[in-house]
Design brief:
The protein is an all-alpha fold. It contains 7 helices and no strands. The radius of gyration is 29 Å and the shape is rod-shaped. Belongs to the ExbB/TolQ family.
Length: 234
Amino acid sequence: MNVTQDLSFFALITNASVLVQLVMLLLLTASVFSWTYIFRKMFAIRSARAQTEEFERLFWSGGNLMALYQDALSNRRKAGGNGGALERIFQAGMGEFNKAKASVATRGGTADSSQLLDGARRAMRASYQREMDALESHLAFLASVGSVSPYVGLFGTVWGIMNAFRGLGNVQQATLAAVAPGIAEALIATAIGLFAAIPAVVAYNRYSHDIDRLAIRFESFIEEFSNILQRQAR
């Protein structure tokens, strides 16, 4: 029996059983998608943070709220215009507040400050949920890859080791050289599973933390802006 077998990484993959190769292909595909979402989410969160800081600077600079609202509408009408999540939350609340005031003025009645504020708050909450859904998109996929990939890789490893030991029944003398290639082929599945899982887990934890911090800033803005609108509604 020839014991000088090719134990290179590529040879171990190509010589693995069909099921183990399918497991490796599945894990590599999951890893490619995972890295794609990791980079996309990194740029999206970085952009959202920068846009939030820019809008907060404009909002608290003491300018006119109606002028800021008109600028937000203008940014939204521009082709590809994207003023950021916080600007859209502000626009939703200010727009609903203005519509409610205009409706009361048309009817010639007296504006109820609590009703005006409730409408604006509901509009901002709805916009907040949409923005959070967009920020949290694909995080569930990263969590699934991080939690499932090691077990998928372990399945491929167990199957490969079973085949390796089963092949020992066809040889007269069981040696380490005879079983080593089969075990090495099987262990690659676990390695690929960890390669897919570790970056996904790290990215998920990091991005969840960053999104939670953005959510706190959004919620704080909603409360502070609601107080401003309440003073204007009196």
